[in-house]
UniProtKB/TrEMBL annotation:
Domain PAS: 176-220
A Pfam family the protein falls into: PAS_8
Transmembrane helix among keywords: yes
Keywords: Membrane, Transmembrane, Transmembrane helix
Protein species of origin: Actinoplanes xinjiangensis
Protein's UniProt name: PAS domain S-box-containing protein/diguanylate cyclase (GGDEF)-like protein
Residue span, PAC domain: 228-278
GO molecular function, a single term: diguanylate cyclase activity
Gene3D superfamilies with a match to the protein in the record: 3.30.450.40, 3.30.70.270, PAS domain
Length: 614
């Protein structure tokens, strides 16, 4: 009995609501017959019975029309009548519940408004005409009836909004389904779907044409003969032979497994398009590498696996210039390369010097690929390397970035390969370019990451790096029970130095001061530039007295007779990082106030540190 903008709610749901109301009013008829007496019992029993009967007839209707919404007036009239007939305001609660029920069941705004006004107006008229109904409780019930009407209106509007959203979602799903069906039937490739029993439940015209059978024979047929992925030979019922390239995908929907087949007729191009299919594989490999590069992932493994596949090789090795522990390429010309990734050979970490006449050194210096069908006979090829990769034939491909070789791809075969086809050469060269792009992208990401956490003037960690380090060190100190001390160092009279010698000299002084502080640090200490002439220290596992000793040594190491003041505070295991830094800043202020060029520790009483085992 519900509509939204002319759209009908599901007939089954509407009939169910009407049937439920019929049962409710049948129960009310029986209840009123048993509870009430005299004319009130007769009138209410009849009204409830009529309401139940009409609701029951409407529930059995196969086509609930919009006129069925007018049935909402029946329970409203019935509820008002019960107040009038019984002469008791207590039955106003029935009207309140009915207003809420009508608000939830009726979707026509006009019908709900009319029925609600009928109920409220009828109740008010009844109370107005019946003098004995006007008493101390009348105001209370008036408010309750009005509140029920408003709440019913809110429920009614929420229902309409919800059904409009459902309608839009249904229309969107229907549109998508129709588009899919059009694409499915119009696809030049044969497409079929099989259920969990292995029977074809849907097939487009192209699939039926390729199978050489009408749709009614294909549907319900066993999908097994078509499940061979890749290129397959198909013998049709008339004896003709077709070649098809098949892809199979499986998924689960609705708790049931499904199989999707896509078959491309390649009969006319079976042999001629072998290279085209290989090119497709190459493009897929490039796309996969590009996706990994775009997402910031390490594309090395993806690229060398693709090279191994496309070149039909047994192993592929990537050698890059040696880097420092932070991943940065060492300055100056590369002196050695190291295997950073490999597929098919356990050689990762192997180092090869570039100061000799090895084949890798030659490719690195010349920037040109070299293929050897029999590398064992060439003295420039390391016998140890050939043994490690079990190589009978080898190809070395340079990876070039901005005109300079940055890596070498070594491709090996355990069988003798007399020549590398043009396709294999192009595949390796193209993927070498992708490797160059991946390595350059990684280098730029590392540079950006270092820039985000590094102060550009002093090369020290910046405030962002300090905050991350502090979160980590406070958590570690809380876990282990070891002390954690922080300090703030401020160069004395730095503004005066800047004004006297200029900002360029001030920047140079900051750089030399940073270098002096770094030189005095221990391995476990952390130093960052906080901003301006301020530096932040974190000394994990160090109590206040020991920290003062270390920091005083750093203070004395300032260059050019420059002095600095340092404030120190040790974490008490309860305060926040902000509170800890504030204590250190207060201690710095005290050091400045007491004459500068000194280390001052916060005198706040500290909680005793203990190890976790204590």
């Amino acid at each position: 009995m519900s509509y939204v903008n002319g759209g009908r709610r599901g007939d089954a749901a509407t009939r169910w609501i009407r049937g439920a109301l019929a049962v409710v009013y049948l129960a009310l008829a029986v209840s009123n017959f048993l509870i009430l007496a005299g004319p009130a019992r007769t009138v209410m029993t009849v009204l409830d019975s009529v309401t139940a009967l009409l609701m029951g007839i409407a529930a059995m209707s196969r086509k609930p029309g919009r006129r069925g919404e007018y049935l909402a007036f029946l329970p409203i009239i019935d509820s008002v009548a019960q107040v009038a007939v019984t002469g008791s305001l207590q039955y106003s609660t029935t009207l309140m519940l009915t207003l809420l029920g009508v608000g939830a069941a009726v979707t026509s705004r006009r019908i709900f408004a009319a029925s609600a006004l009928t109920g409220v107006g009828g109740w008010a008229l009844t109370v107005g005409l019946e003098e004995h109904l006007r008493g101390p409780e009348t105001g209370y019930y008036s408010v309750q009836v009005a509140f029920a009407a408003m709440l019913g209106a809110l429920m009614h509007e929420a229902l309409r909004r919800r059904q409009r959203a459902l309608k839009r979602a249904h229309e969107k799903v229907t549109t998508v389904a129709e588009r899919f069906e059009r694409l499915f039937n119009a696809s030049p490739a044969g497409v079929a779907i099989a259920d969990g029993t292995g029977r074809v439940v849907a097939a487009n015209p192209a699939f039926c044409e390729l199978a050489g059978r009408p749709e009614d024979e294909v549907l319900g047929a066993d999908v097994g003969p078509f499940l061979t992925e890749g290129e397959q030979r198909m013998v049709r019922p008339d004896g003709s032979v077709r070649w098809a390239y098949t892809t199979v995908a499986t998924s689960e929907a609705g708790g049931r497994p499904w199989t999707l087949l896509q078959m491309q007729d390649v009969t006319d191009r079976h042999l001629a398009e072998q290279e085209a299919r290989d090119s497709h594989r190459l493009l897929a490999a490039v796309a996969a590498a590009a996706r990994r590069i775009r997402t910031g992932e390490d594309a090395r493994a993806t690229i060398i696996a693709a090279i191994r596949d496309l070149a039909a090789a047994d192993n592929v090795t990537l050698l890059e210039a040696s880097a420092d522990p932070g991943g940065r390429t060492l300055p100056g010309p590369a002196r050695e390369v190291v295997v950073t990734d490999a597929d098919g050979a356990d050689v990762i970490g192997t180092r090869v010097p570039l100061d000799g006449t090895s084949m890798i050194a030659r490719v690195w210096a010349g920037g040109e690929p070299i293929f050897l069908a029999d590398p064992a006979s060439d003295p420039r090829v390391s016998a140890a390397l050939l043994k490690m990769v079990d190589g009978r034939s080898m190809l070395w491909q340079p990876v070039i970035v901005d005109g300079a070789v940055t890596a070498v791809l070594a491709v090996g075969w355990r069988r003798r390969v007399e020549t590398v086809s043009d396709y294999r050469t192009r595949a390796v060269a193209l993927l070498a370019d992708e490797t160059a792009l991946a390595l350059e992208h990684e280098r730029l990401l590392r540079r950006l990451e270092r820039m985000a956490f590094t102060d550009t003037l002093t090369a020290l960690p910046n405030r962002r790096a300090w905050q991350e380090a502090m979160d980590r060190m406070v958590a570690e100190a809380g876990r282990t029970g070891e002390p954690l001390t922080v300090a703030i160092a401020d160069l004395d009279h730095f503004k005066r130095y800047n004004d006297t010698y200029g900002h360029a000299a001030g920047d140079e002084l900051l750089q030399r001061a940073a270098a002096a502080l770094v030189a005095g640090m221990r391995d476990e200490d952390f130093l960052a530039r906080w901003g301006g002439e301020e530096f932040m220290f974190a000394l994990p596992g160090t109590a206040t007295d020991d920290a003062v000793t270390v920091l005083d040594r750093m203070r004395a190491a300032m260059p050019d007779a420059q002095t600095c003041s340092i404030g120190v505070a040790t974490w008490d295991t309860r305060e926040s990082i902000a509170q800890l830094l504030q204590r250190a800043d207060d201690a710095l202020y005290t050091a400045k106030h007491d004459g500068r060029d000194r280390v001052h520790a916060s005198v706040r009483a500290l909680r005793t540190f203990r190890s976790p085992a204590a």
